[in-house]
Amino acid sequence: MQALSGLKILDFTLNMPGPYMTRLLTLLGADVLKVENPASPDPSRKGWDLTPGAFNPLFGLLNKGKKGITLNLKTPEAREIVIRLLDHYDILVEGFRPGVMERLGLNYETLSQLCPRLIYVSISGFGQTGSGRLKPGHDLNCQALAGCFDAVVNAGHVPQMPGLAIADQVGGGFFGILGLLSAVLQREKTGKGQYVDVSMTHGALALNVSGTIRAMTQAVSPTPTGSTDQRKRDMLQGGQPYYNIYETQDGRHIVLAAIEPKFWENFCKTVDRDDLIPLHLGGEPVVKKVAEIFKSRPLDAWCRLFENVDACVAPVQTVAEALDSDIIRSRAVALDNGYDTITSMMPLRLSASPVKDDAPGPEPGQHNTDVLTRLGFSEDDIAALKARGVI
Predict the structure, then answer these.
(1) Which residue from 227, 216, 263 is spatially nearest to 243, judged by alpha carbons?
(2) CB 3.0–4.6 Å: which of 15, 19, 78, 298 could bond 71 by disulfide?
(3) Of 29, 91, 33, 20, which Cα lies nearest the Cα of 67?
(4) Residues 82-109: pLDDT tens digits?
(5) Cα(201)–Cα(167) distance, rounded to whole angstroms?
(6) 357 near 65, Cβ under 8 Å?
(7) Helix (H, G, I), strand (E, B) or coil at 122
């Protein structure tokens, strides 16, 4: 039995944050029904590529294992179908801007009157309250406003495009899961659902613990740059030699994350530089010395040297290299079709709850007939709904 078997979720989300969230829930056993507009389905199906017949693998990655129906939510018939679906699906996830579901008559206040057990999760760029609530939000501007580039800016560097959609996947997706499952646990005790308001920007800010500490410390006790207190605050921001990214002889990069003195000592001894052991907090001058050390050999040579050394030294890998690495492969779940990179989206393992081996993402409206038949619609009813553009 899977951990989330029995959870039935209506998914009104698009693009990445909500679909990523509900994809992880399907892997743990939840039954997810994806609802799309028949005239304009999820934009991630094409990846904003206007080439005829184009398909974006992002959609396939984030929507495997879900069922799918199409509903034109602007029609009263579609609203009635949603209400009837609440008899079968008592969790709803939506990712529209605040106010959209209310205008459609599908907001939490309305639907919870009909289904008191309803758990209703809203994911938006800036949350349902506050001055930014109606602003459009995608990962990049949410990260920018959340201070995700703090370390780079404070170091005097130019911010670069982020390699990870932190605001989308974690600020929205993971915090959405946390809120949803918390509400499920409370519902088991009270029998009542609740509303879960998720802000991608606030979620991204909550992840930046070291940056928040830096900002709080500076506000309470500002000190000149270069002082001992400043150097301590910069310890996880690239200001110290033991926690930094270095270039190797062949133009690749390697990280040293030797926070504890024992790891720093192991590093220094391995590179035959015992003189650096007392300079754990040596700041920029020692950063330069360590940079010179790493510049003396290619990446592969350093990887071999530190293979069995407790020093938190690791190569900076591409995603392709990570997927092909022994660390990732040796932990991957073995499926009938061999190593499955899709399953690697679920990094945790539950000993009594296997990860779901599921079907591809649904075609638009693929399960219209199955779902509507269960709701009591006849073949003629379904044909009439399709003719009127409701489904």
Answers:
(1) 263
(2) 78
(3) 33
(4) 999 999 999 999 999 999 999 999 999 9
(5) 6
(6) no
(7) strand
